[in-house]
Amino acid sequence: MSVECDKVGGINLAQGVCDTDVPEVVAAAVDKAVRAGANSYTRHDGVARLRNALALKLKRDNGLRFDPENQIVVSAGSTGAFYCAAIALLSPGDEVILFEPYYGYHLSTLQAVEAKAVYATLRPPDWSFDPAELESLITPRTRAIMVCTPANPCGKVWTRAELEWLGGFAEKHDLVVFTDEIYEYITYDGHKHISPATIPGLAERAVTIGGYSKTYAITGWRIGYSACRADWAERIGQLNDLYYVCAPSPLQEAVAAGIETLTPDFYAGLSAEYKAKRDKFCAALTKAGLKPFIPQGAYYVLADASGLTGATGKDKAMELLRRTGVASVPGESFYRDGSKEADNIIRFCYAKREKDINEACRRLEV
Ligand code: PLP
Question: Same domain, yes or no, for 147 and 246?
Fold first, then answer.
């Protein structure tokens, strides 16, 4: 869609790339780190300064205790963190429960390690799930479950009650719980991010995955991490060493500077900034007859595209691009092949500059 969007000089609300500003303290720290000599390989699981900063942040913001010496692995983004965790803890043929609509890289990563994704349904408009359906998915090969909160693409923020249910479910079936919490600081309307590992029963079986691509608007820097029990972290760390050697050295220092320096106002400001964009953009979608499923967190919105011309989500996204010059992602990217749901859903990303959001709203409303 990005290629198609470029061809028509459209507004690209397809890709999840935030083009907002990097916090000054983070940007300035790169130059300082390079000049201070932070240009070599680092320890395979990250520089001590960043692991220490992450341990403090995980305690302060998430209520989690991890030893920075042996329980945190800094990786090449949260994508790298999940890949290393998946290859460390899964064997070919293992089944992993994946909620649909899903984030494409979660599925691709499972496929890359030859695990089998088994789909569970998130039901609109609130993206709730049916515990009975989850129970019915369990087989002797079920090894893990993936929880993305706040979720891409649907914006679901898991509640405490849902996570408590998950804790019992994971314990009963002895599951690893991979969490993707990359949008942890972006929640709306009183929804609060809860790290699954804080729930009794999950601390020892969760691999908490996060990163700074979204929080500091540095998607190209590739700084993420996983945190979990020490024996798993050791295996994940060895694979991180094999695949990436280490995350970029000066950029690790700069992210550490951000974590050390930025105050709670900064993180609260992110939610406020994205809420204003969400509200403006969802109002424009409603006016355009593309009913939005209002997200509880993250910075994407799924919209009901049934009013657009075309048989599939792809046809509809292309028709919208042709007609308005606004690019979205078709539902096929978030649902398994042949799914009917995919035909009537498109996703927009509103992590864009104010002028681009305004222009997209204007074009949609015409
Ligand atoms: N996880 C989710 C749910 C995402 O939406 C994205 C990016 O769109 C990522 C992970 C990628 O994160 P990173 O840049 O840390 O690899």
Answer: yes
Q: 122 and 9, same structural domain?
A: no
Return the best residue to mutate from 103, 179, 333 for the ligand 1 pocket (most ligand atoms within 8 A of CB): 103
Q: What is the C-alpha to C-alpha distance for residues 121 and 186, in angstroms, rounded to an integer? A: 23
**For residue 111, which phi and psi values (nearest 5 degrees)?**
-65, -40
- Nearest residue (by CA) to ligand 1, atom 12, is 78
For residues 190 and 252, membership in a common domain is answered with yes
Q: Give residue-wise pLDDT tens across range 280-289.
A: 999 999 999 9
- Report the separation in Å between the CA atom of 79 and the middle of ligand 1, taken as the mean of its atom positions: 6
Look at residues 244, 261, 278 and tell me which one is the last residue of a structural domain.
Answer: 261
Summarize pLDDT for 58-95 with one digit per residue, the tens: 999 999 999 999 999 999 999 999 999 999 999 999 99
Kindly state whether residues 111 and 197 are assigned to the same domain. Answer: yes
Do the Cβ atoms of 161 and 149 come closer than 8 Å?
no
**Beta carbon of 77 within 6 Å of any ligand 1 atom:** yes
Sign of the CA dihedral with 224 first, then 228, 230, and 235 last: negative
Looking at residue 5, what is its pLDDT? 93
Host domain of residue 314: 2-21+265-365
CA dist 342 and 305 (Å) reads: 10
- CB 103 near ligand 1, within 6 Å: yes
Helix (H) or strand (E) run with residue 358 in it? helix 354-365
For residues 85 and 106, the answer to whether their CB atoms sit within 8 Å is no
Domain count, the chain: 2
**Could you give the percent of the chain with pLDDT greater than 70?**
100
196 and 294 both lie in a single domain: no
Percent of the chain with pLDDT over 90: 96
pLDDT at 49 over 80: yes
Which of 99, 152, 218, 221 to probe ligand 1 with, by most ligand atoms within 8 A of CB? 152
CATH of the domain at 62: 3.40.640.10
Q: Is residue 16 within 6 Å of ligand 1 at its C-beta? A: yes
Residues 202 and 342 in one domain: no
Point out the domain boundary residue: 261, 276, 299: 261
